[in-house]
């Protein structure tokens, strides 16, 4: 850590010290939540289950952990989860994947926010983190199901699921503000308010954040967002939730010295509205209905000069709309049997003339039928079975089943085994991309950078796993081991073939153009070990270790995840009102789907945070200082793009 970072953090810590006279240990007592009870997961099989009964390995990151981490977005938190690879393509674009197999557009994992799919399989990435409107302080918990979970959530949950669950509106402060300032242009402003109107409680959060991105490129970004949640208790047994959000992301991209990809500003807009209705039909009988509408739009146009007054007008602008409705029924027909089943419909409409070489919408319609059941066969055996039946207008009918058995050798020791089959329906880009560039004045086809890939089959994965979980302190402390064998078939590979354009573009090498084929396979084997010791709500030490081996006929897939990685994270109250947290990550050598010259060296990163919590006349507050990437600058996407060490300070006030 450089002397300027150390002196800056020390000065800010001393500046906070006068507030210590107002510190009160009960200032954080209200933070106690579900940790007083046996920890449960809400989304592994669409049933509320103790972790030891879940049909697979689940990592839970709760509100206290999120706050102590100092993370500015959810993508940063996934470094705490074994088997995940994270990186930054540029300042505003975070990359996250589980068990590799990813280029700069990860699309084999699902993210859900309060029951809404945040998967955007349109142009750039399956998960575009910058488009999430939810503020990190409004998150109650994050549940990460490690392994395929298509049986519960469909084809996008091919390798795993990240479920983000926000706090009920009534469980948030009446007023909350957060300010963050730091090196590398770090800046954040958040304002949140909660209001009560009879049986209706509403929360509104607005915020703006940004920084100067990665060295040495021009990728400064500013992200503005609005997020609202309204909880309306219609009757004692009936509730409605309304969720609304909007994000305006403005970022610099491109390369100053590259006329074909010039430095420029790109605007991305995303908005959604969602309504969820809950009805308690009986003591163990509940029905839910969810509908959401989402719109995404990007503005990205520029001119490429060719000389002699000629040039190419490029317009990557696009628009995507999604409508989704789902009905789910949770029933408890017997004391030892529970079932969640339902149906859903979705329609996606995508438009981009540059990407698809047509002004028409690309329309994908999906219908789904699912069921997941838990049977307590005996005091020692818990059996989970489930399946998702999906049909789209482009891929036909596919069934994704799963079966899991958990054996409770003792009340605190569980052995589990699971097997599943899943399919991933392909994105519009993978199937129909036809990216052409024409000279503006003559209309001559200059280049085709991608051509359609008709007749592709969905990717298929078969997963077998065994594990053991040991718990103590009512489950708050635990050790979990997962051993897995994942076989991916019909995996997409990128190859080149003669262009489908006529005449052949003059700038295409040998008249060939890239496209996708189903010729790939990958076998992923390894182990993931996690441990957590948590004697109190605000004190813990935990970590994980992951060993991974990928064998594939795709040279990029073989190296798309490190053979080894580990993390350690700890937090403690070092003095009444004073809290410290530390995280350290090691990631072995790997590369995203890029050339060998872009292979990343193994790297380490350490984050440190010191916080002082206080209470003055009913106002609860926290002032924190920290350092991200305390170690030397490192690269996590391309060797030429480094993440700088950066110190920051933040202030939270709640009333």
Protein architecture, described:
There is one protein chain. The two termini are 36 Å apart. The protein has a 22-stranded antiparallel beta barrel. It has a five-stranded mixed beta sheet with strand order 3-8-9-6-7. It has a two-stranded antiparallel ribbon with strand order 1-2. The protein contains seven helices and 35 strands. The longest helix is centred in the N-terminal third of the chain and has 14 residues, at 3-16. With 655 residues, the protein is mainly beta. It has one domain (38-425, 458-489, 521-654): Maltoporin, Chain A, CATH 2.40.170. Residues 1-37 have low confidence and may be disordered. It is 6% helix and 58% strand.
Please give the domain count: 1
Please tell me what the overall shape is. Answer: globular
Overall helicity: under 10%
Largest sheet: 22 strands, antiparallel, barrel
Using the CA coordinates, give the radius of gyration.
25 Å
Low-confidence stretches: 1-37
CATH architecture classification name: Beta Barrel
State the separation between the terminal residues, measured CA to CA. 36 Å
User: In percent terms, what proportion of residues is strand?
Assistant: over 45%
CATH topology: Maltoporin, Chain A
CATH class annotation? Mainly Beta
Beta strand count:
35
The CATH superfamily turns out to be: TonB-dependent receptor, beta-barrel domain
Q: Please tell me the overall pLDDT.
A: 91
Number of helices: 7
Query: What class would the helix/strand composition place it in?
Result: mainly beta
Put the structure in a nutshell.
This protein is mainly β and 655 residues long. 6% of the residues lie in helices and 58% in strands.
